[in-house]
Design goal:
Elements (H helix, E strand, L loop, with lengths): L8 H4 L3 H18 L6 H5 L9 H21 L3 H4 L17 H20 L6 E2 L7 E2 H33 L20
Antiparallel strand pairs: 1-2
Helix pairs in contact: 2-6, 2-7, 4-6, 4-7
Length: about 190
């Protein structure tokens, strides 16, 4: 059974910042966990015309964390941080990218993001973005939107990958049936 900390009574009445943190961590975990139990080939499988793969989605999420919680907070350039210059480039997979290595990079990026934001208030301005000064509140909302979107992409890709694996094993899901154990977050 999937649980949602954001639906817990303590979170419902918590201050806005605490609610933001819980929602961010839910989506971070959903995207991270979308790779659990997959083979390297499955994680790299491309099912759409773009560069989008499950492994690429999580690698892009690492980029997003570093853009908004390193570049925007510290004003360091992307080259110094060690991230691509554009979002599109962040989906590109290297030969050394594995499920374990990208999940590890994601966990580290999320930990660094939490640490970078810990001393900041929602109305504090971040000066390292090309748009100019932006409040942390806007960054939280932007990342929530992005992580929710990519978590949805990951749900669909994972379901397709596992359904194909089930079909080749002769245990294809019936049309319209819930994809049990696929990482889907039904009931949201």
């Amino acid at each position: 059974m999937i649980t949602y900390p954001s639906a817990e009574p303590a979170v419902l009445g918590a201050p806005l910042r605490a609610q933001f943190d819980v929602f961010l961590d839910e989506y971070r975990a959903a995207l991270h966990d979308s790779l659990d139990g997959l083979t390297e080939e499955q994680a790299r499988r491309s099912l759409v015309a773009s560069r989008t793969t499950l492994l690429g989605l999580l690698k892009h999420a690492v980029f997003v964390e570093k853009v908004w919680f390193d570049e925007a907070v510290t004003c360091r350039p992307r080259e110094e941080i060690g991230i691509p210059g554009t979002p599109d480039e962040s989906f590109a997979l290297d030969d050394g990218d594995t499920v374990a290595s990208v999940q590890r990079a994601h966990r580290r990026a999320c930990e660094a993001s939490r640490a970078a934001a810990a001393a900041l208030g929602l109305d504090d301005l971040l000066h390292g973005n090309r748009r100019g000064p932006i409040p942390l509140r806007w960054v939280y909302l932007h990342i929530l939107r992005e992580l929710a979107q990519h978590s949805g992409h990951a749900d669909i890709l994972r379901e397709q990958i596992l359904d194909a694996a089930d079909a080749s094993a002769g245990t294809r899901l019936t049309p319209g049936a819930p994809a049990g154990g696929t990482g889907g977050r039904g009931g949201r």
